[in-house]
């Protein structure tokens, strides 16, 4: 295999590993990676505001609110409006949420971060530099992404981005093959 083909295989393996882990989390726990990440962050402190959670997990406040809506419906967290500032809502884990976290698997990004942090600084820098270059080559450097390993929704063909005229259609075909 040529180097370029080996790079493409490695990228596909990374994408596939992320998708498989996401499917496993949903099948085993009924939760996505970001949902588990937020639950994990709530276990570190009794009460947190939605804004604090959003900053800690590098997601927008709107996205965190949407995720909290879903996990609150499952009884894993509870929210309460502040009596001093009605705009502020605090969130805490329920007993059901605490029980779920006792048996949760490590998230893929936690596994990655543990292994990555064990590398020498020069190797971390080389990996970062290489991945940034690959991202630029794939025009992915213009995409804003949080440091969360999750496949997320794949855009449908009618939601194409003008920077990626064929990617959405190609991704839809690939997604159908892997489901």
Describe this structure in words.
- The chain is mostly helical and 179 residues long.
- The protein has a single domain (3-178), classed as Arc Repressor Mutant, subunit A, CATH 1.10.10.10.
- It contains eight helices and three strands.
- It has helices at residues 3-29, 33-42, 50-57, 61-73, 95-102, 108-117, 121-137, 167-178; strands spanning 48-49, 77-81, 89-93.
- Strands 1-3-2 form a three-stranded antiparallel sheet.
- A hairpin with a 7-residue loop joins strand 2 (77-81) and strand 3 (89-93).
Compact overview of the structure:
This protein is 59% helix and 7% strand. It is mainly α.
Strand content: 5-15%
Mean pLDDT: 80
Question: Per CATH, what is the topology?
Answer: Arc Repressor Mutant, subunit A
Structural class: mainly alpha
Instruction: Report the top-level CATH class.
Output: Mainly Alpha
Distance between the termini: 28 Å
Can you write the helix and strand succession as a string?
HHEHHEEHHHH
Largest sheet: 3 strands, antiparallel
Tell me the radius of gyration.
Answer: 19 Å
Write the layout of secondary structure elements.
Layout: H1 3-29, H2 33-42, E1 48-49, H3 50-57, H4 61-73, E2 77-81, E3 89-93, H5 95-102, H6 108-117, H7 121-137, H8 167-178
Q: What key attributes describe this structure?
A:
8 helices, single chain, 179 residues, mainly alpha, Arc Repressor Mutant, subunit A, three-stranded antiparallel β-sheet
